[in-house]
């Protein structure tokens, strides 16, 4: 793998690429409008993964930076998978100073349990205490 760089600089994000991936190739945000992606970026702590200056991965955290965080929209472009980018990206998220000492850090995943388990994520200790409002097809017309 060439030199990998992880950054929280929102100005460096390739918002068009992020939107294209989420809206067309993700399993969780098909059809998401660009304005919604931009609003999510604006109100989140974002991480870009870059190889030779080209963005190849993304993750964002919604957090109060004191007690709670939710990790979302984690992806690595298909051509760059299997090279440790996702491991480095999640490690950077977990090491960020604003995300230390939180009482609860959550995420949802359908296929990357082992990636997150390395960082202490487990199924909810008290699943009966969790509730949600979930609209999986909200962006599909």
UniProtKB/TrEMBL annotation:
<dbReference type="InterPro" id="IPR016181">
    <property type="entry name" value="Acyl_CoA_acyltransferase"/>
</dbReference>
<feature type="domain" description="N-acetyltransferase">
    <location>
        <begin position="4"/>
        <end position="141"/>
    </location>
</feature>
<keyword id="KW-0808">Transferase</keyword>
<protein>
    <submittedName>
        <fullName>GNAT family N-acetyltransferase</fullName>
    </submittedName>
</protein>
<dbReference type="InterPro" id="IPR000182">
    <property type="entry name" value="GNAT_dom"/>
</dbReference>
<dbReference type="InterPro" id="IPR053144">
    <property type="entry name" value="Acetyltransferase_Butenolide"/>
</dbReference>
<dbReference type="Pfam" id="PF00583">
    <property type="entry name" value="Acetyltransf_1"/>
</dbReference>
<dbReference type="GO" id="GO:0016747">
    <property type="term" value="F:acyltransferase activity, transferring groups other than amino-acyl groups"/>
</dbReference>
């Amino acid at each position: 793998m060439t030199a990998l760089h992880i950054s929280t600089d929102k100005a460096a994000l390739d918002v068009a690429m992020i939107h294209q991936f989420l809206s067309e190739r993700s399993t969780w945000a098909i059809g998401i409008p660009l304005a919604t992606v931009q609003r999510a970026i604006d109100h989140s702590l974002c991480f870009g993964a870059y190889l030779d200056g080209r963005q190849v991965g993304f993750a964002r955290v919604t957090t109060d930076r004191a007690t709670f965080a939710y990790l979302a929209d984690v992806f690595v472009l298909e051509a760059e998978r299997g090279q440790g980018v996702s491991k480095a990206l999640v490690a950077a998220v977990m090491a960020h100073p604003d995300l230390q000492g939180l009482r609860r850090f959550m995420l949802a995943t359908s296929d990357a349990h082992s990636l997150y388990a390395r960082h202490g994520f487990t199924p909810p200790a008290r699943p009966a205490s969790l509730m949600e409002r979930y609209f999986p097809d909200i962006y599909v017309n």
